[in-house]
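Workshop exercise sheet. Pairs work together: one partner reads the sequence aloud, the other fills in the structure field after running the prediction. Swap roles for the next sheet.
Pair: D.N. / O.F.
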Amino acid sequence: MDKYEKKREHQRVLYNAPLHFTVLSMRGPVFRRIHSTGMIINASKAGVGISTEFPLQPGQVLHWDDSHRQKRLHIAMVKWSMEEAGLYRGGLTFL
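Structure field:
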């Protein structure tokens, strides 16, 4: 168990599933929706860890449909992000 696992309130489990998400973004008065893809790499009751080519930034809000339960929408905020070998890893918290 690493030092971060001790701080986490919810246990993470490894997960490997494709992700098709939309980033909701405000640029001044303009609202934008940006569609992208990635992979969910781990999950907990509070959120997910993802890997994507999209340059994630803390504070961004993402939404996607649950592939296991039709018509269930997930909305999450990027809590942290780091670039790793041309990909972005990020921790998302469900809203």
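Discussion prompt: The chain has one domain: 3-94. What would you look at next?
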